[in-house]
Specification:
Elements lengths: L6 E3 L6 E3 L4 E10 L9 E10 L1 H7 L1 H16 L2
Antiparallel strand pairs: 1-2, 3-4
């Protein structure tokens, strides 16, 4: 995509980063009441989170994405 891309906010530091430069990481969030009864409420959500390059490097997002890619490739048999 050429031209000015939309800006997204870094989840960690709040910096405005162009969307094509930001690191996209899918985060799994789970909420539960932990009542251990029949009324126990559980909710799982997957959310896209954007990080700037420096925060992604500092938090180790690149290593996590690399490990996930290797795991997916092993499952496919490559």
């Amino acid at each position: 995509m050429r031209g000015r891309s939309t800006l997204v906010t870094c989840e960690s530091c709040g910096r405005a980063v162009p969307r094509d430069k930001a690191v996209i990481y899918e985060k799994a969030i789970s909420f539960n009441t932990e009542l251990k009864t029949a009324n126990d409420v559980r909710f799982f959500e997957r959310r896209k989170v954007y990080y700037c390059i420096s925060c992604a490097k500092h938090r180790g997002i690149f290593e996590i994405k690399k490990r996930d890619a290797i795991r997916k490739a092993a499952r496919r048999g490559i």
